[in-house]
Amino acid sequence: MNLACVVHQSGSETLKPTDKCSSYPAVRLQSIQIQQPDRPLFTLFFFSRYSLEDEPTNLDEMPLMMSEEGFENDESDYHTLPRARVNQRRRGLCWFLIGGWKILCGSCCDCLTRTCRRRKELKARTVWLGHPEKCEEKYPNNGFKNQKYNFFTFVPGVLYQQFKFFLNLYFLVVACSQFLPALKIGYLYTYWAPLGFVLAVTMVREAVDEVRRYQRDKEMNSQLYSKLTVRGKVQVTSSDIQVGDLIIVEKNQRIPADMIFLRTSEKAGSCFIRTDQLDGETDWKLKVAVVCTQRLPALGDLFSINAYVYAQKPQLDIHSFEGNFTREDSDPQIHESLNIENTLWASTVVASGTVIGVVIYTGKETRSVLNTSSPKNKVGLLDLELNRLTKALFLAQVVLAVVMVALQGFVGPWFRNLFRFIVLFSYIIPISLRVNLDMGKSAYGWMIMKDENIPGTVVRTSTIPEELGRLVYLLTDKTGTLTQNEMIFKRLHLGTVSYGTDTMDEIQSHILQSYAQHSNSGTGSALPGKPKPTTAPKAAAPKVRKSVSSRIHEAVKAIALCHNVTPVYESRGVNGETESAAAEADQDFSDDNRTYQASSPDEVALVQWTESVGLTLVNRDLTSLQLKTPAGQILTYYILQIFPFTSESKRMGIIIREETSGEITFYMKGADVAMASIVQYNDWLEEECGNMAREGLRTLVVAKKSLSEEQYTDFENRYNQAKLSIHDRAMKVSAVVESLERELELLCLTGVEDQLQADVRPTLELLRNAGIKIWMLTGDKLETATCIAKSSHLVSRSQDIHVFRPVSNRGEAHLELNAFRRKHDCALVISGDSLEVCLRYYEHEFVELACQCPAVVCCRCSPTQKAQIVHLLKQHTDNRTCAIGDGGNDVSMIQAADCGIGIEGKEGKQASLAADFSITQFKHIGRLLMVHGRNSYKRSAALGQFVMHRGMIISTMQAVFSSIFYFASVPLYQGFLMVGYSTIYTMFPVFSLVLDQDVKPEMALLYPELYKDLTKGRSLSFKTFLIWVLISIYQGGILMYGALLLFESEFVHVVAISFTALILTELLMVALNIRTWHWLMVLAEFLSLGCYVASLAFLNEYFGIGRVSFGAFLDLAFITTPAFLWKVTAMTVISCLPLYIIKYLKRKFSPPSYSKLSS
After folding, report:
1. Which residues form the active site (predicted)?
2. Are the CB atoms for 973 and 954 separated by under 8 Å?
3. Is residue 477 annotated as part of the catalytic site, yes or no?
4. pLDDT of residue 26
5. Are residues 912 and 829 part of one domain?
6. What is the C-alpha to C-alpha distance for residues 467 and 1016, in angstroms, rounded to an integer?
7. Over the stretch 927-952, which tens digit does the pLDDT of each residue have?
8. Rounded distance, CA 261 to CA 238, Å?
9. Is the bond into 332 cis (omega within 30 degrees of 0)?
10. Is 592 labelled as part of a ligand binding site?
11. 6 pLDDT band (50/70/90 cuts)?
12. pLDDT for 398 beyond 50
């Protein structure tokens, strides 16, 4: 341990660490405080290297350096801090044997893959308009490809996926060994038929899935688009589009590649696009065309200019873009900076007008593809557990074979005998395990899809239904998953009076009355375009208490003006009109033809509400907006400035000038936390905001301030100056705006409700009671996310919410994590940016703290971040995760989770197609997990262990038989008996376990606490497995020794005797394990018994011992004697009766939790 060189006296300025200290890699800063008499407190910092043995790092015991520079000096060192414990794990022989070999092999394979498929480095590019041939390098094809294999890799790929499982690889080796005469035990078909069947079923299933994927890709890639060339418009398919092409996209058409927006048919030079498949937000986004190209007289002029776009290299961030547009053939050259407003990303949809853009990124380099992870083959936890158990069985098999050879005394070719014994005992690991489980999974999928209580549910990945019964974390999207994304205006509060949905007609009458007075007094008689000069602001006049009517009028007018909403009208232009004609087509301004578009559905809800009370927004462009009064009069307002909403400011403002009076007014609305300090003193705002929030309403505070001409001119000069500054532009601009935001007149408080999906609250409560932790990951704003978390009861009323403050560096993250650590039992709300900083420096600590929270809300999450959070939970907790979403932005998260559920909603089918399970409503997830998840897991666990028992019992009998016959490696049962034993004689009853259920569906939904037991994995564990091993050894021993003891005189019939008893024992054991009988189970039992009895007549050649029977085959006269029947019955009873007694006693004295409920 090295003593550091930092000693700091309490109360004095902190010293920076010296270079020598900061050069230690992966170190932890610890402190000792030394108190000396009559001396100030000294703190010694020292470093200790991380090791696995260190106790979990206590954030409070990791003092931070007080100066921020200390962090920025050597952030690379701190980058390794949280991972240090993980990286410094012990490396030894034990580690290698336990699983290190697998990690090393995986690393080597990854390295080879990376070498073979070295990715081309992504670079910035210069794209010439309409000239793809001028591109400096080759860019990727624009085709979509979701297929896993191609024509050549299908067979090798599927075989690899099958034989990477130990079980299948083991059977392949055993089957291949039968080609060697020295090792041949039985008939070839005994080994190759089951293996071939398994592979054939798997290949057919994979082929069907692959064909479906191919058809979906083909449909997407063959969509036709108009491409602009020198010769005019030509049709091209989506997959043939190249970087540099000028593509025309019509209204409601999908944008095929990432483009820069050059031109639109809309007169305003802007258009709306729907981005729901990219970021999950259903609000329309306003995009602005490049000014230079929008001003060109005609569409064909795009080829007459010499211009190019410089674009940054492809990136993941869908919310930012940097580039430049340059026109070289003008004098002087025209340069325009490009930002996110000038982009049209692939997979978004044009919502208004026709747009023309130049393609800058295609295929793999588009934002949507970069944010989508490639689908991986998901393997269920139950499959992994069974794989581990088969390895344990293999070990037992090898030990048994070695014991046999050792008892022979290692004489002769003992090595060959060893291998023969291994093949002889190969039934200890049954190949039918894979077949039974796969068929069981298909049956569960069929049951899920046929469940009338969850109509429309589709199982797309049939290999993991058991995962539904093992989930600990549920990660859900918000928009469209928990909510319907439909906003409804619920409350208007004016301080002294509050209006709800049932009293809106009063507001309507006040507005009608107010505008009637205005028109009578001749307010609207001033000539348009000649504003009256404004005198000093009204605030200077003595305050007079306004009437309720005038206050309502002011509030409604403010709500109708302060927003970023644009009314959109369907054009009456006929198809086939030219661009300019279509742009200038008359628009129908009638109410039924108008829709509102904005970047937030809250805004639309407010404007729709003002329309319902009589004040309608009828038109808006970049410089003005028009309102229609109840009397039909049109009022025009000029937009002087707009201050858009940002997550930092939490408010938006607008300065407008009324056309008739020339009055200038500054309107502002925002979150209560931001507005409380801006508005004039009042005693009701905070209380009412709290009341509305508790009802789950999203609140907005609306205020205004009248400005004189001089005040506005002074502000405008300072504002423009701030916008032109090069350094600290954002800070200077916000400072100028803040100079206006003082002593605003509080007008009203609005409450809007985002309607939740049906039964979201009871469903979330059900999941919480089942022990499932719910995390909400959304791209929405922090306030919105917090509001929905409360209204949906994701966060219960008694719980506190800790809002993680925005952090940008390690120091801030550390302090904020410390603050969060002191909170107990509170929900966490964190933004995507802060999350990224925390994960960069304190990944382990952050996940550890977040996992202790009853609920977590992550807002402003990108699609990649959503997937990253899923990976983190899988990596740090080893628990099963489930992701549920409904938009294209949720696909990465759904594919990353152990179990992905997609909802078919307003945002399209992209999430539903990428998911493992597709449902139509969020409330269906309750039944899907509690009922089908439970049944699938319990049934598969019982089925898997029973099939293993079936193999172990026959291997025990073989071992007893071989040990009696001088350890000869001769099979007890020949050819068809072995195939028949695992198929027609026992398959139906064993497979009927997939119909068994321990709890009725109603009970599972009524007591979701039962689900908690499933996550512990007690139905299939080494403990239950060992119980089955003991049962197999007991029964196998009883049957074999019983046959030898009771039939000494008729020893030649030992095969028939023991095999008959074995079949009866298996059928009784199935009956012992069934908890709820179904008529098909009874049918399966009798059908199997009937098949066995009927086949006895035809199988006499198989009932000899070894290759040579001892001169006597099956004697029908012998098996019909009473002696044979009572002796077989006695053996069967002795093998099964004790187990029935034990089961009865266990149920009586130690019943499982579910049996208490059902009784």
Report:
1. 477 (4-aspartylphosphate intermediate)
2. yes
3. yes
4. 37
5. yes
6. 13
7. 999 999 999 999 999 999 999 999 99
8. 18
9. yes
10. no
11. very low
12. yes
Which domain, by its residues, includes 787?
469-482+758-919
> Residue 279 and residue 756: Cα distance in Å, rounded?
20
- On whether the CB atoms of residues 1087 and 1154 are closer than 8 A, the answer is no
CATH number at residue 503: 3.40.1110.10
Within 13 A of 441's CA, how many CA atoms are on the CB side? 22
User: 483 forms bridges with which residues in the sheet?
Assistant: 756
Tokens standing for residue 773: 């932790």
Which of 899, 919, 939 marks a domain boundary? 919
Read off the CATH number of the domain in which 302 is found.
2.70.150.10
Domain co-membership, 634 together with 499: yes
Task: Say whether 6 sits in a helix, a strand or coil.
Answer: strand
Q: What type of residue is 842? A: Y
In a domain, 31, yes or no: no
Its pTM stands at 0.70
Strand order in the sheet with 232-237: 232-237, 224-229, 246-249, 355-361, 258-264, 343-344
Q: 227, 233 in Cβ contact below 8 A?
A: yes
Say if residue 72's pLDDT is above 90.
no
Same structural domain for residues 861 and 844?
A: yes
Query: What whole-number distance in Å separates Cα of residue 1081 and Cα of residue 1070?
Result: 9
Is 645 annotated in some ligand binding site? yes
Total of domains in the chain? 5
Instruction: Note whether 989 and 1083 are same-domain residues.
Output: yes
886 is in an annotated binding site: yes
What is the C-alpha separation between 592 and 606, in angstroms, rounded?
A: 18
| 270 and 315 together in one domain | yes
pLDDT at 577 exceeding the cut of 50: no
Tell me whether residue 45 is annotated as binding: no
Residue 1074 lies in a domain: yes
442/553 same-domain check:
no
Catalytic residue among 258, 276, 283, 477: 477
- Cα distance between residue 242 and residue 138, in whole Å: 10
**Which among 554, 546, 544, 562 is positioned nearest to 507, based on CA atoms?**
554
Question: What would the pLDDT profile of 1027-1063 be if each residue is shown by its tens digit?
Answer: 999 999 999 999 998 888 876 666 567 777 888 899 9
Judge if 1000 and 1061 occupy the same domain.
yes
Annotate 966-1023 with DSSP letters as a single string: TT----SS-HHHHHHHHTTTTHHHHHGGGG--SS-HHHHHH-GGGHHHHHTT-SSSHH
The answer to whether the beta carbons of residues 842 and 79 sit under 8 Å apart is: no
Instruction: Flag whether 579 is in a domain.
Output: no
| 391 labeled part of a ligand binding site | no
Both tokens assigned to 544? 């007079």
Helix H, strand E, coil C: the string for 602-669 is: HHHHHHHHHHHCCCEEEEECCCEEEEECCCCCEEEEEEEEEECCCCCCCEEEEEEEECCCCCEEEEEE
Amino acid at 750: T
The chain-wide mean pLDDT, for the chain, equals 81
**Distance separating the N- and C-terminal Cα atoms of the chain:** 64
Per-residue pLDDT of 891-928, as tens digits, reads: 889 999 999 999 986 656 778 888 999 999 999 999 99
915 and 944 inside one domain: no
Q: Which residues pair with 617 in a beta bridge?
A: 627
The DSSP line for 53-96 is TSPPP-GGGSPPPSSTHHHHHTHHHHHTTTTHHHHT---SHHHI
The pLDDT tens digits of the residues spanning 760-808 come to 999 999 999 999 999 999 887 787 788 889 888 898 878 889 999 999 9
Distance between CA atoms of residues 233 and 356, nearest Å: 12
Q: Are 963 and 425 in contact (CB under 8 A)?
A: no
Residue 526 lies in a domain: no
Helices 934-964 and 1054-1073 meet at what angle, rounded to 10?
Answer: 160
Look up residue 548 and give its two tokens: 């309720």
1110: annotated binding-site residue?
no
Residue 778 burial class via C-beta count within 10 angstroms: exposed 0-12, middle 13-18, buried 19 and up: buried
Contact 1048, 1133 (CB under 8 A): no
Residue-wise DSSP of 303-324: GTS-EEEEEPPP-S-TT---EE
